[in-house]
Amino acid sequence: MQERGRHYFPAVDLAHFTLEAKAQVEQEIARDFSAAFTGIKQLPEGAKLGVYLAYVYYRKLFNRIRRRSPQDLRQGRIKVANTEKLALLVLSYLKYSFNWW
Question: Which residues of 58-78 are buried (b: 16+ CB within 10 A; e: fewer)?
Fold first, then answer.
C-alpha cells in the first residue's frame, strides 16, 4: 500500500491495519463511488465516456481490494490484467453507447 512511495490511506496506521479499519476505509470509498457515478452522469457529453471508463476500472480494482485481507494488501500490489482492462473498455463503451448505465 506504500509501494512507490505512495500512501493511499494517510489516516490509517498500516502497521496495525485491522479488518475493522479496512471496513471503515471501504465504506468511505463506496460512498465516494456512489457520489462519483451521480457526477459522471452530469458531465458534458465529451467527457462522460472517458471518466466513466476510469470509474469502471477503479471500481473493479476496489472490488478486488475488498476481497483481500488486510495482510494481503500489505504484501503487494493489486492489479487488473490488461485483458480485463480491454474487456472493461468494450463493456463500458457498449453500456455508455446504449445508455445501459
Answer: eeeeeeebeeeebeebeeeee
**Domain assignments of the chain as residue spans, ordered by start:** 3-97
Mind listing the pLDDT tens digit for each residue in 26-73?
999 999 999 999 999 999 999 999 999 999 999 999 999 999 999 888
Report CA-CA distances (Å) from 37 to 43, 55, 59, 73, 98.
10, 8, 11, 26, 17
Residue among 78, 70, 79, 63 at smallest CA distance from 14: 70
Q: Which three cell numbers stand for residue 16?
A: 496495525
The chain-wide mean pLDDT, for the chain, equals 90
